[in-house]
Write a structure and sequence with these properties.
heterodimer, A: Dipeptide-binding Protein, domain 1, D-Maltodextrin-Binding Protein, domain 2, ten-stranded mixed β-sheet, five-stranded antiparallel β-sheet, 17 strands, B: 14 helices
Chain lengths: 528, 306
């Protein structure tokens, strides 16, 4: 077929082991003592989570993945994917041992691991992979199904996706931007039905479903037959605790071991509490300021120097220190997160209000100007308040217009905020191309205008199969966004969580950009 | 009497119909549920798919008609978020709410009624003033603040009680106290005023003139009669406690109906909000109907007047 483009690290490393290595490992085992090895092999103990949102049964079914990151907090435990982001690899073969792309880019062949089983003991086969893809009805399912012509299963270990035309983003969508590559057992789903599956899901992930009480808790138990490694912790209890203060109190008391989402002053309190640790994770969600009037020649925003002035006026580090204990990542790339494929790193952001004032004066706005409204999602009005103050300092006068989250994004995509400044954000999955497709180029869902030189590069990359050539085009597009100061980047938002004293490895941050603990099989307890 | 009951039942059905209409349209004013189920930047096709899945792409009057049709069959619909029948969710949370409300009610009566009696027999003195301060605090301190202070003191510092959750009697103490605190103040005020009314009546004066001991006058003659409005209020309060303990249940992660309503509002889960509000409304309407009927049985003038 084509070139081998994915392979399991573990298989590679084990293939390279020599007899001397094995003797060395055996010796270490003897010195370290058998009990340690027994502990590693046999899961023990319980780890309790305080979850900030109420879990839904749809989170147990990859077919229902609606393009938000939250359900993946459970999917990573219950299920496994053919290819998925793992520590150090944004598209690692998991249920697949390897995968190859056809020379023409119109087919992808996945070779599944042998001996991999679902929680009920059934083997994971190519039929399950095909069934899971066809059953998938979550985010981007229409797009994916419109691109795939056929799925062939020549044998139980081999599955071939035939595409209608070359689609360089197939693997991005299959591995991370949807739930289509997460595999469910065909026979079991057909036996128990859709509702039955959601009530008692079976997957191929490191943890088995034990019980779920809506609004109360989800209980999971280690699956000792998991292919990557046997989980260290026997039992996971995910308790729904909607109030942030209550989660912190429970963490302090040792009632829970991990508390998701502890922000602001409570985060400071957590840092001060003995035995507790703050675990910040930088999300794949950048925040930015956007100037919808920049294409209107009569508007001050059409002047490049005005937009550049805003970039110099924002005190990103000060804002991060004040609101997120300094844990947000200032990349200076407005819309593409640093974890995405084809990311381009712009020069460092600079906070220099004097230079900003000078640029404004050069643009003919020595005394500043009235910029109208700064419209934002009310959940992040605190960030917008800081931006407003920063802009005020250099003479750009604006008024805050916080709008309830859903209404804000509806208005943003509905192109209703045509004046002033918009403070936007996105944590959608994808890569640099998908992100710019929504926020930068002509006809993007959130584009209020575009630049022809950026637009003409977009279709050129869409059909480019050579990764390096494609990266060159996409990097050029990001550079043009930076040069034109089309956006004023703020940062990539940090998600702060707390960890209690019993936890050894929490697995926070092992998968870049992922807010929650994963992979679950890497989590350890100190006492276990 | 039969006509009276039929007329009152008709009013109840009309109230429930108006409530269903109001909640159905009000909940839709809050925005599009799809916006909360998908990341910004999602394709219009994905948003349309969610609308279609939940039937939100149909005209409003069709949606309302379907809602009423399923309601007439005892079905409150399917939760958008939980993908589970709302009635099943409601009934799974109801026992927790009933338990919390019952204990909170016991707290509120144990604190409110004796302090109200004490305040009424010591008018203008220390206990009366203390009662007024208690009532003021009870009615003005927000229950989430009371809850958080309780967690801080009894859970974090003293480590006597679990901070949140459910499962043991210990889990019930703080949420029940936080919920009952407000109602205790209300019961205290009503007990005090009701007792003062009764204590000023002729038959109490007569009892005292007859030389009955003061304790007997208060306990046997005054308290019994003063208790009627308090118990009436307590009955309605119990229904309110069951259905709208939103803040307390959220702070203490107590899996009751109030938190179900909170989750429904948070996720714009229209069927859940509609179901919880309608069930709560039905409870209040039924309790009121029963009270009306009982009053009519006790006092025939009521049914003749109406």
């Amino acid at each position: 077929m084509g070139t081998l483009v994915g392979r399991d690290d573990k298989a590679q490393s084990s293939a390279q082991l020599t007899r001397r290595d094995l003797l060395g490992v055996a010796a270490i085992g003897l010195v370290a003592g058998a009990p340690g090895m027994a502990r590693a092999a046999s899961p023990a103990g319980q780890l309790t989570y305080g979850i900030h949102v109420s879990m839904a049964p749809t989170w147990f079914d990859p077919a229902e993945t609606q393009g938000i990151i939250t359900p993946f907090m459970v999917l990573y435990a219950l299920h496994d994917a053919v290819v998925k982001p793992t520590p150090g690899n944004s598209a690692a073969p998991c249920l697949a041992d390897s995968w190859t792309m056809g020379q023409d880019g119109k087919s992808y062949e996945f070779l599944l691991r042998k001996e991999v089983k679902f929680h009920n003991g059934d083997p994971v086969t190519s039929d399950d992979v095909k069934f899971s893809f066809e059953r998938y009805k979550g985010a981007a399912h229409e797009l994916m199904k419109s691109k795939v012509e056929a799925i062939e299963t020549p044998d139980p270990q081999r599955v071939v996706f035939k595409l209608k035309e070359a689609w360089p983003d197939f693997l991005t969508f299959y591995s991370s931007a949807s739930g289509a590559g997460w595999i469910v057992p065909k026979k079991y789903v057909e036996k128990v039905g859709e509702d039955g599956f959601r009530q008692a899901p079976i997957g191929a992930g490191p943890y088995k479903f034990v019980s779920f009480t809506p609004g109360v808790e989800l209980v999971l138990e280690a699956f000792e037959g998991y292919w990557r490694k046997t989980p260290s912790v026997k039992r996971l209890v995910m308790k729904v605790m909607p109030d942030e203060s209550t989660r912190l109190a429970a963490l302090k008391r040792g009632e829970i071991d991990i508390a998701y989402s502890i922000r602001g002053e409570l985060g400071e309190e957590l840092v001060k509490s003995p035995g507790l640790a703050l675990k910040p994770v930088v999300l794949q969600g950048p925040n930015w300021l956007y100037f919808p009037e920049q294409w209107d020649p009569k508007s001050p925003w059409s002047n490049l120097k005005v937009r550049q002035a805003v970039n110099f006026a924002i005190d990103r580090q000060g804002m991060s220190d004040a609101l997120f204990l300094g844990h947000c990542k200032i990349t200076n790339n407005a819309v593409v997160p640093y974890t995405f494929d084809f990311y381009w790193q712009p020069p460092d952001a600079v906070y220099d209000p004097e230079k900003a004032k000078k640029l404004l004066a050069e643009a003919g706005f020595k005394d500043g100007f009235d910029a109208g409204l700064l419209t934002c999602d009310s959940s992040y009005a605190n960030m917008a308040e800081v931006s407003l103050d920063n802009l005020q300092t250099i003479g750009i006068r604006t008024k805050l217009q916080p709008i309830e989250r859903a209404a804000f994004f509806a208005g943003y995509s509905g192109k209703k905020y045509t004046k002033g400044i918009i403070q936007g954000a996105s944590a959608a999955f994808g890569n640099a191309a998908t992100r710019m497709g929504s926020f930068v180029v002509k006809d993007g869902a959130f584009s209020y205008g575009s630049y022809p030189d950026i637009d003409e590069l977009f279709p050129a990359q869409a059909n480019e199969l050579n990764h390096d050539k494609r990266a060159t085009i996409l990097n050029k597009m990001q550079q043009l966004i930076y040069d034109k100061a089309m956006y004023a980047p703020i940062w990539q938002l940090a998600f702060l969580s707390g960890v209690g004293p019993r936890v050894g490895e929490s697995a926070f941050g092992l998968i870049p950009g992922f807010a929650y603990t994963a992979p679950f099989e890497d989590i350890t307890l100190k006492s276990a | 009497m039969r006509q009276f009951i039929i007329r009152r039942a008709g009013y109840c059905l009309l109230s429930l119909f108006l409530l269903s209409l109001t909640i159905f349209f009000f909940v839709r004013v809050t925005g599009d549920p799809a916006a909360l189920l998908i990341e910004p930047g999602a394709s219009p096709a994905d948003i349309a798919a969610i609308h279609h899945q939940f039937g939100l792409d149909r005209p409003l009057w069709v949606q309302y008609g379907l809602f009423m049709w399923t309601l007439a069959h005892g079905d409150l619909g399917q939760s958008f978020y939980y993908q589970t029948p709302v009635i099943q969710l409601y009934l799974s949370r109801l026992p927790n709410s009933l338990m919390l409300a019952a204990v909170a009610m016991i707290f509120s009566l144990l604190i409110g009624v004796p302090s109200g009696i004490l305040a009424s027999v010591r008018v203008g003195k220390f206990w009366d003033s203390a009662g007024k301060v208690f009532a003021l605090l009870g009615l003005s301190l927000p229950s989430f603040w009371v809850g958080l202070v309780l967690i801080l003191v009894f859970s974090v510092y003293l480590r006597w009680l679990p901070s949140s959750g459910s499962g043991t009697p210990l889990h019930l103490i703080m949420p029940a106290f936080a919920l009952g605190w407000y109602f205790a103040a209300a019961h205290m005020r009503l007990t005090r005023s009701s007792m003062l009314d009764v204590l000023g009546s002729e038959y109490i004066k007569l009892a005292r003139l007859k030389g009955l001991p003061e304790a007997l006058v208060i306990a046997k003659h005054a308290f019994k009669n003063a208790l009627i409005p308090v118990l009436t209020l307590a009955g309605i309060n119990l229904v309110i406690m069951v259905n709208v303990a939103v803040v307390v249940e959220t702070v203490f992660a107590w899996p009751g109906i109030g938190r179900l309503l909170y989750e429904g509002i948070t996720f714009r889960d229209f069927p859940v909000v509609q179901g919880v509000v309608l069930m709560g409304g039905a409870m209040i309407v039924i309790v009121n109907l029963m009270i009306d009927i009982l009053y009519a049985v006790i006092d025939p003038r009521i049914r003749l007047e109406r």
